[in-house]
Specification:
The protein has about 525 residues and is of the alpha+beta class. It is about 20% helix and about 35% strand. The chain has four domains: about 5-75 and about 205-310, Thrombin, subunit H (Beta Barrel), CATH 2.40.10.10; about 80-120 and about 135-195, Thrombin, subunit H (Beta Barrel); about 315-410, PDZ domain (Pdz3 Domain, Roll); about 420-515, Pdz3 Domain (Roll). Strand 23 and strand 24 form a beta hairpin.
Length: about 525
Amino acid sequence: MDDTTASRPKSVGTIASHKRTLAACVAIIATLGATAVFANTNNLPGKPMVTPVADLSATHQDSQSEPGFANLVDRVKPAVVSVFVKADQIEDVVGMSDGQSDGQDGDNPFQGQPFNFRQFGPQSDNGNSNGNAKPRHHLMQAQGSGFFISADGYLITNNHVVDHAKTVEVAMEDGKRYPAKVAGTDPKTDIALLKVEGSSDFPFVRFASSKPRIGDWVVAMGNPFGLGGTVTAGIVSANGRDIGAGPYDDFIQIDAPINKGNSGGPTFNQLGEVVGVNTAIFSPSGGSVGIAFDIPAETAKHVADELKSSGQVVRGWIGVSIQPVTADIADSLGLKAAKGALVDEPQDGGPARAAGLKAQDVIVSVDGKPIKDGRDLARTIAGMSPGKAISIAVIRDGQSRNFDLKVGKYPDDKAAQHEPPADTDTKLGMTLAPADSVQGAGSKGAVVVNVDPDGTAAEKGIQQGDIILSVGGKSVSGPQDITKALREAKKQSKRAVLMQLKTANGDRYVAIPTA
């Protein structure tokens, strides 16, 4: 694409208006919306531009009948940017960003066992276990991708790209660079909204109004390994993937190759609309193996709108801890199918308890919308505005019951305003805090605030956000109880104890070594 075309941002906006041993690395793709032409190269008079499903045999009859993406790329490329970040990184508070020191460019990886994706937690100070040691500061540089969503300079990237950023700069396709400010971030969905000043006529793209179907063609653009604008294509492989990255996982899986540096950019459908923001890849090697994960456009748009209007995302909350309904649980409760969300315990002071919900209730629908599982319930409630009146249908003792309540505001929005008291267990490699200091009064257990990717906790699959409920059969009220339980087990010559965890996917037990 020549400089003349790149200098015409309006064409992009106008056309768009028409429409994470194994490692799993974080990646992102940025792309813009425009109308894609999938034309047979033998466009003879009377032949359609897009081969109908009924006429797919015609494509196989001519080896030259291949789809092309050049027109789409020409139109959307100006809206895709490279994002460069400098951060004053503190080693024991390092967050999602895994940019590298010593002037190296980098991108943040999710890391863990297959289909057990997790984010990097804090790193210890070169093995120094002295809790009073001062954290070391060092310069970290990271890079990713992004894309404009409005002509006045708002653009989207990943939160892990700009986390702890001191300066952010974006580079356009034509080489121009602009300083950018972080307008807001949402770690739970890994979305960040940036604002660039200096023009009111930036090229931009729009989000698709519906999810792509499995098998649909998609095109991804971004800044892999710092190479700049790179285009890859593939198909949608799956929808609704849960990779353990956060409480609201609902990823689109694609096979378009993306790598480090792609983080934060979009993936397009054939109409040039953004269908997702690439955030993670599954990779044994650290590079693309054809499995990538996108934040759905619907989620990205909602988060961006919230960040633009208020600088934060306000989520609904009803105050229940839940776990999945397994086949065994369904059978024991007399349910016809293993669907819904089993209430483990309604929280004190929450709307659900006030409305009358009890432990062992199975939530099967909200306002008439069927609830498939706990993740579905979490996303449904989180997307509602606090104060909204809703009706929840549950199965209790084999009978259907309905409860009316008003959605509350997710308490984490307030808890995020202060740092909870935390203890770092260097032997297990995780930082813990009392649950009630993070999730509100009445919460039980100890919350995993951060996880050392090279520690025992990470090896056992423990993730940030997990809640430790008991150790060796004894209930936990805070980090000190965990240390005490492990010490007692060791005195009894036990080599390991069972630790009960409450995770985003339900309760589970892990065996933790005492030595």
